[in-house]
Amino acid sequence: MDHFIYRDGILHAEGVALPDIAATVGTPFYCYSAATLRRHYQLFTDALSPLPHLVCFAVKSCSNLAILRLLGDLGAGMDVVSGGEYLRARAAGVAGEKIVFSGVGKTRAEMRLALTDGVRQFNVESEPELRALSEVATAMGTTAPITLRVNPDVDAGTHDKIATGRKEDKFGIPIARAPGIYAEAARLPGLSVVGIDVHIGSQLTDLAPFEAAYRKVADLTRQLRADGHTISRLDLGGGLGIPYTRSNEVPPLPSDYGALIKRTVGDLGCEIEIEPGRLISGNAGILVSSVIWVKEGEGRKFLILDSAMNDLIRPAMYGAWHDIVPVGEPAPEAIPDVFDVVGPVCESGDTFARGRPLPPLAEGDLVAFRSAGAYGAVMASEYNSRPLVPEVLVHGDHFAVIRARPTFDEMLARDTIPEWL
What we know:
By secondary structure, this protein is of the alpha/beta class. It has helices at 18-25, 34-48, 65-73, 83-91, 108-117, 127-140, 178-187, 208-226, 254-265, 278-281, 314-318, 408-413; strands at 4-7, 10-13, 16-17, 29-33, 53-58, 77-80, 99-101, 121-124, 144-151, 173-174, 191-197, 233-235, 271-274, 285-296, 301-305, 324-326, 337-342, 351-358, 366-369, 391-395, 398-403.
């Protein structure tokens, strides 16, 4: 469910008509619904109750400070994968003890940053990282709480570029080697083992891979406890998918996911951490764009928009589908036309959809890309020297710009021409 609906023939974000936002900030722009963000977060925390738990929002999915503040105020923790994301979470007011530091390539500088300002745990992904963290923590005279991310060799059945739990993926420690590495962690100074971490991929639409992975984690928990380790937390990752189309694809509900967690690991007495991103923010955001031209090609018609692959790269990068809808509600009797929906970037890959049936559209009309709140603005760039897209947050009947579109002067000012040129 989201809060983007037609009212009086115009698509609204909660109580705000999208053309009103377009008139203020121009197009393209990202628009988020605060009500949808709150609802989706609450679905997860309800699903895990009464187990002790912490829902850590995956900052990589949507990292705007206003959104992090909104979720943090609800009680969310944060899952970060870089020093920059850590600083964003802290700037949004999230306490260090509610920040989980994940990522396969943490640097010593990032370790020092988190240990200085507070961290809930490091999800350690390799033996070299484990030893480096021990050295950093010992040099600082402190102790780093850790889990080890285990790779359960479970194929999540998702897109190859977002699968993370197979033995050939770069993430985590092979689960068969975990007992030996946990033994090393217990011997190293400056480390405190608190649990186990696992994450098998993103946009999963079937619970079976989760169940296979979590049962392996449950077995490992019992084995590690028998070896004398304290396992008080299980970080079960994120990855639950969302419906990108209005077809029959219906991913599992958070309530089903919560029931699975209770069934597989609920008897272990551990605090449960999960790291949802896409399911909280994905359907809470849209990208609004204007039609520049309708171009007649050879046997095809192009809908050329003012948004491009640099604004929303998922279709070009993953072949991803986003529903594209007119902001002005089409008449029931409107006969669809078939378009290749493209942007103005000088790349053939700057294509959002091919052969997409859409209501008749004309120059200046507004369209919205649904389900664009996750991995949209965060993956944007200034390719072709196109300014980053502004972000807007709607709350009821009002909205605020939470990231402004940079001016060309601001973009140019970041470059420096040496004196010798």
